[in-house]
Amino acid sequence: MLNSSLETKPVVHEVFKKIHRVETIESTNSALKELFHQGAKAGTVIIAEQQTAGRGRGDHVWASPLGGVYLSVLLTPADPRRPTELSLLAGVAMAQAVRDTLPKAVEVGLKWPNDCLLNWRKVGGILCEAIPEDPAGTCIVGMGVNVNLNEEHLKPFLANPFSATSFMLECPGGDFKVSRVADILLRKLENCYIAYKQRGFQSIQYLWERNCALVGKKVEITVSNQAGPAGKAVGIFLGIDDQGALVLATGQQGERRRFVSGELTCCWR
Asked: At residue 66, what are phi and psi to the nearest 5 degrees?
């Protein structure tokens, strides 16, 4: 259910015409889905200061205490059959926003399919959920960025592949305002979405690969049904194709293989 403190703030955006801000909510994605069924249109945004039931891909939990950016937006893909394009688009916006906020010395990059890395540790993630009953293919794009979270907040995720981090942990002493990070993220997302609508996915594919930390590196992917009995494949990360699938060069002959789903669990830098 939507929290009673949810309010609409006037903003000047070309795409995001209505932005709702709330102190505490279970999940911005769930709340935005409820708003969609009440008539909300593409371009609607919910931003929360904290979530009590934040979600990641699959059954993953997204830690959402005070100190992070937690927002969800309603967006429509150029082709209703290709909603994953919006997740990759959001990744580009997130990498740009993180890079613009932090000192030049840090390393910022994307990890397929939906994570943003800071110094090779996960600082942000994206959860894109299609609304299947909508013929236009409208999606809820949820985005989370760890800004002022400490090790105690992130302790359950420190042992994960590409362990969790935050702006505060990687740049001690920095003065990071969560509201400013959220504003930069929305502006970057809007710019990417406008470019995508005008020039198609190819422009996003190019930007995603430019921002990817893994291109040219040896990686391991774990999948449920594509890589044989072990459920793993190892190869050189070549990039993504024109449908957003991961492309690896595997084996001694460099056979090109594409993966539409899976989890990157290791990278040899």
From this structure: -55, 140
Q: Which backbone phi and psi does 187 adopt, to 5 degrees?
A: -65, -45
H or E stretch at 181:
helix 178-199
Among residues 40, 56, 46, which one has the least CA distance to residue 24?
46
Q: Which residue has the tokens 């200061």?
A: 49
Residue 198 makes CB contacts below 8 A (sequence gap 6+) with: none
pTM over 0.85: yes
Map residue 177 onto helix, strand or coil. coil
- Confirm if 64 and 52 have CB atoms less than 8 A apart: yes
**Which run of H or of E encompasses 264?**
strand 263-268
Tokens of 256: 């090109």
The partner residues of 249 in beta bridges, in order of sequence, read 236, 256
The two tokens of residue 201 are 């996915």
Question: What end-to-end distance do the CA atoms of the chain give, in Å?
Answer: 44
Using the structure block, give the residue that is written with the tokens 């992917």. Answer: 221
Q: How far apart are CA 48 and CA 66, in angstroms?
A: 9
pLDDT above 70: residue 16: yes
Report the share of the chain in percent with pLDDT over 70.
91
- Rounded to the nearest angstrom, the gap between the alpha carbon of residue 199 and the centroid of all alpha carbons in its chain is 21
Return the structure tokens found at 138.
């409208």
